[in-house]
Write a structure and sequence with these properties.
Helix content is 27%, strand content 22%. By secondary structure, the protein is an alpha+beta fold. It has one domain. A hairpin with a 2-residue loop joins β2 and β3. The model has no long low-confidence stretch (mean pLDDT 77).
Length: 81
């Protein structure tokens, strides 16, 4: 689950947007899926999280957070060596 957490955290940081990560539950062959789907806001806060069972998560999001987050970041426009 730690790898999964890093994945959605890096996606959110890289894109500065809401991220929804879905994970299935149950077993396929010898592979076990543990669920834990999440929705993360542009600041990296988990705003909805599923448990280990089959579940649907949904919520309304405030899109103004995307603009707000974008205004508070450093943008690199060129790079010189």
């Amino acid at each position: 689950m730690v790898r999964y957490t890093r994945c959605y955290s890096s996606q959110r940081a890289e894109n500065q947007m809401f991220v929804a990560m879905a994970n299935q539950v149950g077993r396929v062959g010898e592979t076990i899926f543990v669920g834990g789907s999440v929705i993360v806001d542009p600041y990296g806060r988990i705003i909805a999280e599923a448990g280990c069972g089959e579940e649907i998560i949904s919520l309304s999001i405030d899109l103004s957070l995307v603009q707000e987050r974008g205004k508070n970041t450093i943008k690199i426009t060129s790079c010189t060596n």
